[in-house]
C-alpha cells in the first residue's frame, strides 16, 4: 500500500465520521455550530487549550462543541493527558478523551514511489495528525488552569465589544432597507436598522455574518467565489460565513435567537458529495473569524 493509500485510509475515517454526524444533525434541523448556549451549563466562547490559552480552530471547534454539549461540560478548556500532568494535575481514571486533529504535510523519502510534482520534485502528502484531549471537567488538580477571563453574558460589556470590532474593521456598512447582504463588487454591507429586528442583539449576528463575507474580498483573504446564487461554490461561501458568524458570536458572548438557515438543502448536497468539505469550510471560517478578531488585538488559533 502506497503513502497516498495509507494517508487516505487514516484520514478518511475521521473525515467520514465527522461529516456523517454533521449531515445527520442538519437533517434533524440542528446546526452543529449553533448550540443552546442558554442551557445554563456551558461557558460562552470558543474552545481553548488550557495549557497554552490559544483558541482551537476549524473542524476542532465543531468537534469540541459537540462533545461539550453531549457530555454537559461547563468548561471551554481542553488539554492533552501530558499537558494535564505538566500543569500538576491529572485526568481522572476512566475518562474518555476526544479526538481533535490538524492538517499537516510531509515529503516522502527518495526511495518511496510517489508521483512527482510539476517541477520534478516529490509531491508533499497531506495527512491529518490526531490528538486526544480532555475537558477540564474530566481532570483533577487543575482548578487554576481555567482561571483566564471567560466570555461574559453582560450586555453592557458585550455590545460595546461587538461595536468596537465592527467599527475597527472600517467596513462600509450602510444601515437601512429591508434586507442584509454584502456587495463584493462595490465592497459594502447593507443591513436593516437594529430596531427592525425582533430582538436587537440579532442585528450584531447579522452584521457579523456579512463581515464574514466581507473578509473574503480579494483585498483581504481572497476567498469569494466567482459564481452566483444557487451554485455549490456560493453554498460553500454561505456555509463559511454562517460558521464564521457563529464562532464570532460565541467569542463575543452574543447569543442570537435567529439563524441564517436558508441554505440547508444546498449545504447538505455539498457535504454529501465531499466528506472533506466541512473541514475546509470550518478552516476558512476560522480564518475569517481570526481575521476579524484581530481588529480587537486578540490572539490566534491553536490546531487547525
Write structural notes for this entry:
With 304 residues, the protein is an alpha/beta fold. It has two domains: 3-146, no CATH class; 155-296, no CATH class. 40% of the residues lie in helices and 13% in strands. Strands 1-2-5-4 form a four-stranded mixed β-sheet. Strand 1 (48-49), helix 2 (59-71) and strand 2 form a beta-alpha-beta unit. Helix 5 packs across helix 6 (232-252) and helix 6 (232-252) crosses helix 7. The protein is globular and about 60 Å long.
Task: Chart the SSEs and their pairings.
Blueprint: H1 3-27, E1 48-49, H2 59-71, E2 77-79, H3 81-86, E3 90-91, E4 98-106, E5 125-135, E6 139-140, H4 155-169, E7 173-175, E8 181-183, E9 188-191, H5 201-214, H6 232-252, H7 264-273, H8 277-293
Parallel strand pairs: 1-2, 7-9
Antiparallel strand pairs: 2-5, 3-6, 4-5, 8-9
Roughly how much helix do the residues carry, as a percent range? 25-40%
- Give the strand content: 5-15%
| Amino-to-carboxy terminus distance | 28 Å
With helices defined by DSSP (H or I, 4 residues minimum), what is the helix count?
8
Q: Helix- and strand-based class? A: alpha/beta
- Give the count of structural domains: 2
Largest sheet: 4 strands, mixed
Shape: globular
Number of strands: 9
The SSE string, one letter per element, is: HEHEHEEEEHEEEHHHH
Question: Which spans of ≥5 residues are poorly predicted at pLDDT below 50?
Answer: 1-10
User: Average pLDDT across residues?
Assistant: 85
Q: Within the largest sheet, what's the order of strands?
A: 1-2-5-4
Cα-based radius of gyration, to the nearest Å: 20 Å
InterPro entries: Antirestriction_ArdC, ArdC_N, MPTase-PolyVal
Protein name: DUF1738 domain-containing protein
GO molecular function: single-stranded DNA binding
Domain Polyvalent protein metallopeptidase: 161-283
Amino acid at each position: 500500500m502506497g503513502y497516498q493509500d495509507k494517508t487516505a485510509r487514516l484520514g478518511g475515517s475521521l473525515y467520514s465520521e465527522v461529516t456523517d454526524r454533521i449531515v445527520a444533525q442538519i437533517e434533524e434541523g440542528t446546526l452543529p455550530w449553533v448550540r443552546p448556549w442558554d442551557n445554563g451549563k456551558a461557558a460562552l466562547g470558543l474552545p481553548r487549550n488550557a495549557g497554552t490559552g490559544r483558541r482551537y480552530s476549524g473542524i476542532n471547534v465543531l468537534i469540541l462543541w459537540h462533545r461539550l454539549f453531549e457530555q454537559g461540560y461547563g468548561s471551554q478548556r481542553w488539554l492533552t493527558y501530558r499537558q494535564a500532568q505538566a500543569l500538576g494535575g491529572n485526568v481522572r481514571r476512566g475518562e474518555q478523551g476526544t479526538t481533535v486533529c490538524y492538517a499537516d504535510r510531509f515529503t516522502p523519502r527518495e526511495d518511496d514511489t510517489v508521483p512527482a510534482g510539476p517541477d520534478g520534485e516529490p509531491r508533499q502528502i497531506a495527512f491529518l495528525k490526531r490528538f486526544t484531549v480532555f475537558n477540564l471537567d474530566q481532570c483533577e488538580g487543575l482548578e487554576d488552569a481555567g482561571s483566564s477571563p471567560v466570555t461574559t453574558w453582560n450586555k453592557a460589556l458585550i455590545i460595546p465589544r461587538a461595536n468596537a470590532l465592527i467599527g475597527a474593521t472600517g467596513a462600509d456598512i450602510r444601515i437601512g432597507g429591508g434586507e442584509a447582504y454584502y456587495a463584493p463588487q462595490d465592497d459594502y454591507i447593507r443591513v436593516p436598522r437594529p430596531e427592525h429586528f425582533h430582538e436587537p442583539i440579532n442585528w450584531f449576528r447579522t452584521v457579523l455574518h456579512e463581515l464574514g463575507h466581507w473578509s473574503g474580498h480579494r483585498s483581504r483573504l481572497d476567498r469569494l467565489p466567482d459564481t452566483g446564487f444557487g451554485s455549490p461554490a456560493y453554498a460553500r461561501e454561505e456555509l463559511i460565513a454562517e460558521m464564521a458568524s457563529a464562532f464570532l458570536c460565541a467569542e463575543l458572548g452574543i447569543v442570537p435567537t435567529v439563524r441564517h438557515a436558508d441554505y440547508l438543502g444546498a449545504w447538505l448536497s455539498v457535504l454529501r458529495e465531499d466528506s472533506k468539505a466541512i473541514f475546509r469550510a470550518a478552516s476558512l471560517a476560522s480564518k475569517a473569524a481570526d481575521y476579524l478578531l484581530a481588529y480587537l488585538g486578540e490572539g490566534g488559533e491553536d490546531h487547525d
